[in-house]
Each structure stands twice: as C-alpha cells, then as structure tokens.
Amino acid sequence: WSALPALLVLCLSAKLLSMGMLADTAARSFAAGDSAGVADAAAGLRIANFIEPYRAPFADGDGLFLAGDFAAARQRFEEALSLAGTADECVVRVNLALTIERLGDAQAKAEDPTAAARLFAEGVAVVDAAPEGCFDAGGEAGADAGTEAGAGEKLKQAGERLQQKADAAAGEDTAPK
Question: Model-level pTM?
C-alpha cells in the first residue's frame, strides 16, 4: 500500500520539475522564432497542469502567433487569460493585445476599416481591463522573476498604438468614398 503514495509523490515531483524546464523551452523557442519548438513545449505543459494551468494555452498562443495564425492565437491567449492569476495576467494581456492588433492590421490591409476599428477597440479594451498593478514600476503586479520584464510598459505602448489605430480606422470608415 505504501507503493501507491510513493508513486504519486514521484509523479508529482517529476511534473513540478518538468514545468520549469518546459516553460523555459517555450520561452527560448519563442525568442528564436521556432513555432514548432513552442508547440512541443506547450504539449508537455498541457499534461496534468493543475498548478499553473494558464501556461499551456499561453505557450500554444505564442506558437500560433509565430506561425501567423493570429485568430487561433487569440483564442488560446483568451483561454490563458481566463486561467491566469493576477500575477501572470499582465504578460498574457500583452500577448493578447498584440495578437488582436495583428488581426486589426490584417483587416486594415484588406481595406475593411469597420472590422479593423472593431478589432483595435477590442484590443484597447483588453489593455483597459488590466489590473492597476500591471502599469506600476516594473509592470508585473507582483509577478515572479520568470515573467517577461517590462510587461506593463509593453501593455501601455500597445494600448496607445491600438487607440491610435482605432481612431484612424474609425476616421477611414466615416470618410466619403
């Protein structure tokens, strides 16, 4: 009977040790522009991830973003946001806002200012919904050292850019044709 609890403890220990390594692999793969590497790490993060459940969809979103599948990346980042704690919310919001911005840029390029303006406004809403701590000095609202440095500043910059693009797209939509 003592073998079962020992096996469970061993499995839990292995999972806890692998979480950090897989998250690091996902981050390094993202920095290298390796969408397949990010996807592989995300697959490992999905297995029995009850401690930081947001990490797998977050890594999936990163891989999809790198692959240029912004619609699917948005879905994964939205899932990650729903699972993230306050300390990790800022970094997730940065990636979600940047993904929505790319979707809006695609609509603007396709000469659909109405859809572009709507997407840019959705991106602004993602930024506006961030907890105050996201914009504090350091920008991580208590996030651990493993989170991306400067997330608050990146989120602020994305919000400003999205607002400018939303205003420009709304102006294009009302301009006489």
Answer: 0.77
